[in-house]
Amino acid sequence: MGSVTTATSPGSGELSAGLRGFREVQRLAYACAEAVAAQLRPGVTERTAARMQREWLRERGVRDWFHLPFAWFGDRTAFVNFRVPLQFFPTNRALEPGMPFILDMAPVHRGFTADIGYSGCLGLNPVHDRLLADLGAHRELILREVRERRSLREIYEDVDRLMVRQGYANRHRAYPFGVIAHKIDRVGQRRWSPTLFGFGIHSLKGLASDALRGHRAGWSPLWSPYTFSDHPPAPGLWAVEPHLGFRGTGAKFEEILVVTDSQDPQESAFWLDDDLPHVRRRQEEKST
């Protein structure tokens, strides 16, 4: 995405028109997560929650997806005993009082993509509250080390070490290829937007094209613990999702990190938006 190389961070100037489009769809996705979370009640199933997300977004013009919405309840938020990709899809697991949940969606709107993760809990759960609070240190670590131009693999390992110090297990390692992040980009608008195994065909083609181009140039669009991620972050937009687990409770955030080719550390990488639910929560905790 060409505008990334000249984009300025939200704190130092106006975003480019392209970045504003990505910020708008990311905010739309988080608004969906908050709206659906507010409607969750005991007895609602993961499949129902996933359908609520789809319907809310479709009512607001979403017709394409990087991936269809997911919902995980209870110990499924920590991917307990997940072994195969099919286990990620929504089930008939019903929500209960005190149970954590994660809503995860990746809509494409007006050609712009977002991929977000929203963690919540139905009622009080001190363990879950602690997980959410401790995620803030990961957001800070990731941004700092991307600005230092550390390799993706090194940053991944440092996130792992921080989780261990906090007493948690790395649950994003359960994702395909163990990724903590992946690149996203513009998607051409088309009349027909099919999905395959829950993923948008057009978005998958774009990711495959990035993988081919990156392989030739020595970089990968997947941020993993493996050698193919042993390089500094490539300029572009990255959907980043550190995922903590403690026994049967999991929590994460997922949001867009912008990486540019600027020599100014503050402009070389920045979170696209600091007005998101998990960021506001951390700011409120700091102020109190």
UniProtKB/TrEMBL annotation:
Domain (Peptidase M24): residue spans on this chain: 22-261
Signal peptide: none
Origin superkingdom: Bacteria
Protein name: M24 family metallopeptidase
InterPro entries reported for this sequence: Creatinase/aminopeptidase-like, Pept_M24
